[in-house]
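Justification of computing resources. Each target in the renewal requires a structure prediction run like the one illustrated here; the chain below, 696 residues long, is used simply to show the kind of job we budget for.
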Amino acid sequence: MRQSCCFGRKRLREQENIRSIKGIGEKTEKLLEKVGITTVGDFLGYYPRDYDEYKEPVTVREVKVGEKCAVSGRITGKPGLQSTGRKSVVTANIREENHLLQLTWYNMPFLRNTLQPGGIYVFRGTVAEKRGRLIMEQPEIFGREDYQKMQHTLYPIYSLTKGLTNKFMVKTLHQILEDREMVQEYLPEEFRNHYQLAEYNYAVSHIHFPTDREDLLLGHKRLVFDEFLFFILSVRMMKEQNAEAVNEFPMKPVWETENLMESLPYQLTNAQKRVWNEIETGMTGKTLMSRLVQGDVGSGKTIIAFLAMILAAANGYQAALMAPTEVLAKQHYEGLCSLLEEHGLGYQVLLLTGSNTAKEKRERYEKMASGEASLLIGTHALIQEKAQYKNLALVITDEQHRFGVKQREIFSGKGGKPHVLVMSATPIPRTLAIILYGDLDISIMDELPAKRLPIKNCVVNTSYRPAAYRFIRKQAEEGRQIYVICPMVEESEGLEAENVTDYSKKLRELLPDTIKVECLHGRMKANQKNQIMEAFSKNEIQVLVSTTVIEVGVNVPNATVMMVENAERFGLAQLHQLRGRVGRGEYQSYCIFIQGGEEEETKKRLEILEKSNDGFQIAGEDLRLRGPGDFFGVRQSGTMEFRIADIFQDSEILKQAGEAAGAILMSDPELSLEEHRLLKERLLAYGKERIEMPGI
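Resulting structure tokens:
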């Protein structure tokens, strides 16, 4: 124990800057900022993405290619050493009857004398096959007794960026947990007892360093419960306020929207008509509208958003649409301008983004403040301090902004209380949507436009890659464009998965120079991401290798292929959203899901995507297939952006949190009772954190 040496030393508090942590200087601070860690609380909330489990050792004959395992065996003969310049390679063999496993270490020449011929060791690593031989490269080395002590323990694995190591993360978290000030329990004891929830500090400690799976599940359940509870409380309290809030912007239905719908070059689906009727009724009613429109990818939510904006403008008010990226904002702007021009509607549309010059911003702020511009499209620039509105009646945002709780507050501070419309492309089964958002003010768009060609899907293993590359080349040479999705930005310690950086290099080598390959990921600067997305939308880039940042990307009708590497590492909802990036034009589109492992269960889950293009059906099947607690290594929910909670995998905990939120608000709607004081403080802190977290 280090308690005595900590005597008199200030304990670390969650809100403190990471520089207060011993050993973190300016350089490390910048690296941690890259992964979103700026405070001690952020560090504690940076949960492991997976756990490395030290399983029972196997024999050489039991090893499987592509799997990480521990192998127990006797070294045959003296290890070999080859040196070429600065590089050295140590090799050793372990044999069982006719089965041989070669062990290889790079730049560790001392091992030649450390490993004793005939000695029995446990080697841990991933088995590969090269030139017909089984090889384990850079394996960890343990004595038998040492490994026995490690067996069945869970070692945390964190998402990293270049310069950060897993070892550093583990060491620092151990230090924080030892030196931190304990958080006073904020959940009423009756709820903890009723739902069998661990104490908060215990949960945080054991999510990072569990002693076993049971321990991990306990910590996980409590933190998931908290995240769901805070989200549901935020939404329901907002909804409660809105239910009583008078509509400050009285409106009437207008001929402009009716005329526009009739003269569109296509027929609106029945779902679009139904949802539009719900929105129109809400905006022309006596109380404030706060509505979530949940529509599958490609269901036509954008035209409904434009109709709502025109309704506000025709009644003499302003409407704002906030997009998560500049490129998408620009695309919405161009789409709305074209629509107004085609139908002879003279409302002024204004585009406001971070890349506008100071002069452009000044001019646009003036037009917003005077009311000259009635339709406003932009990014977070719309809610900057200098952005003022004359009579903002409608705010449209999307799921990337977390139900728009904070955005509504900020917009409200700029005038009256506007109507709020939130567009979501995550298909959530209605039962879960009701718990998350309450059973009021949810519109579901569950129909696709008639002329859309269904996407052709296939789930394959890694042996299919050469055929996939040939297909990509053929599509690109025919003038089409391709997305390739990888789970990681760069090679990461402890994780066997494809990464954007190396994959884009590989494709450049494989494909002819006439096919331009570019990569995209969330760690790039905003202007760089915008440039790449812009170039892709203009077909200046044919193959875009990306992480999931393209979930909220632009509409590229020319893109016909979506290939996802390590598809097993994504949730079905997320994969379905990614798939929605293609199939938006007149050409037949394809989706190739490449499974990195051979697990039968994973294959069965991915085949759901092969059989259906219906997001709501997929979400329901996903929910049915997997039970609660099956959370190791995969984030499932797509863009909901919970830190640890997952609406599918943790559906049972979601139900409990919904029940608890209802009970709390029934007895204390304002959380003003002393027993809820700490909970309210925590909820306010949660709201602040959610708000300040930037979009992609």
